[in-house]
Specification:
Blueprint lengths: L4 E11 L2 E6 L10 E2 L2 E3 L6 H13 L2 E14 L4 E13 L9 E5 L1 H6 L7 H11 L1
């Protein structure tokens, strides 16, 4: 039987030389780890539509989705995800924390030291290589 892979999208939100990262709620899987804003795609949604919906739900703002940055497949104990990151920018409203504990405008040092979700580690490595 083929393994089920959950499609997950995330926004690479950049402000000058910093990237916006968000701390997961304590009561969720991988609680208190850091991640990029986003979430699971729903049936019938394009990845871009899912990312726009997730950012509206989690951050209370509208985003403009740009080009795909990278894709990662990661196996957690409870699920396997295909994480696709897109360049994005806030297009409407301001970021509010509707689900996350905290936001960080992370520079290179923060990206190296914050405890990120395991699926995000290859993303962090690529960002550090591409932008710093």
């Amino acid at each position: 039987m083929a393994e089920k892979i959950t499609a997950v999208v995330a926004a690479l939100l950049r402000e000058n030389d910093r990237f916006l990262v968000f701390q997961r709620p304590a009561d969720k899987a991988r609680g208190l780890l850091w991640e990029f804003a986003g979430g699971k795609c729903e049936p019938g949604e394009s990845p871009q539509e899912a990312l726009i919906r997730e950012c509206r739900e989690e951050l209370g703002c509208g985003i403009a989705v740009g080009e795909k940055y990278m894709e990662v497949i990661h196996k957690y104990p409870d699920l396997t995800i295909c994480l696709t990151l897109y360049h994005a920018s806030v297009a409407e409203g301001e970021i509010r924390l509707l689900e996350h504990n905290a936001v960080c405008a992370a520079d290179a040092e923060a990206l190296r030291t914050l405890p990120f979700c395991p699926a995000d580690q290859p993303v962090i490595e690529k960002i550090l290589a591409d932008f710093f």
